[in-house]
Fold this protein.
Amino acid sequence: MSVFTTTAYTTDKLTPGQRRIMLAAVDEDGRLPAVANQRVLNSIPESWARTDAERGGRFLTAEGRAALAPLGRYLLLARANPETGSLSGSTGHHDMLALVRDGLAVLQDSEGRPVPTADRWQPGNWLRITERGRRLVGMPLTAPEFAERFPVGSPALWKREGERARPVRVLGWPLADGTVYVMPQDARLSYAQSKERPVPAVQLHPAPQAPTPTVTDRSDERRKTMTDSTPELPLDDELLALRGLAAAALEPMTPRTNTWEQVKALEERATAGYELAERFTEFDRRATADRWAPREWRRGRDLSAEEVEALIERWPDLAALGPFVRTLAAAGFQGFQMLNLVKQVQGRRGLPEIKAGDVVEAMLAGGGEPKTIRLKVDRTPWAGGPDSTVLSDGKAVTAVVTASVRVVEDDGTTTARLITDES
């Protein structure tokens, strides 16, 4: 088994001394330094660093490398762009701190200067793999011959024995275990089959270069090639797609028959999570830039004059807002929220003066059989809808019909309870 395999993982944690020595070994092609503290060297188990009598020393094993970089961090490093060094996918704050602490990645600005981790989300700052990170996952330090035939981002054909060739896009250089990360490009594949994955480099072949047909019966301003990329989905459709990805990522896993298959299933699930995070990040960027979208979120609406008139006809009190109805709608306010705002400003919600400690009796909102509740409130009520108010007794909140709210005399034994006809 290669020392760069991703199928060996451990839940044992390294001590700080073990971590320093094993990270130093990564810089020395896996050999543990002989001049390190002997007590710490003796504490490193053979499963992490195996003695090699022929080579004269102890060398990191797959389990040792897995202890230095758990599954999520290892995959993040292995999927780094080998040309720019940038780490794709979503990086948790804890993982980012660990990668920077161990010297496996560095946070840089757009000019390549190191910046503190506190500036992670500043525009232009990016997490990039270091030379130590490349050595850990077996990524070449310089471009191999493979990169001349298959540059990063180029198309290729993935051909396995006994199967037809599949079009893929090359995402990196060959790692030390002989695999290359690719992204299948066949639109007929299922979601699980279309995710990026490592494949043997020897199974990749150059893709034939097809001519690019051009639509010639259009003007120069509208002329476009038939191979233009597919336009982005509308935000509402993209939201549905994201929900499908989330459902697939959260789907319960079926136990596999052996450890290797279980680890592979975990790798695929982690890849699905990374893809979901990447697509959601792009979705959030587009939704932020589009001030009216997506519709399903109801974040904002550009009301027409007819729609404004319809709102005012439904809730006449909104006429007091005048042109600000459109402004509030663009900010994401619904009609009943605007109505509550008007009533609160004008003091016409119809509620008696209620303060903490008052005993209130009101009819429950929500339709169905009318029911009345009596409780002692612990704070001032607040609006719950166009015709409802929310009461709190410190234990729970209850929505009641605004018009039915009244303050009653406290008999000293009041607790939240329903009032039936018999009582």
Q: What stands out?
A: Confidence is low (pLDDT under 50) at residues 5-9, 213-229, 293-298. The longest strand covers residues 179-184. The two ends are 78 Å apart (CA to CA). DSSP finds twelve helices and 16 strands in the chain.
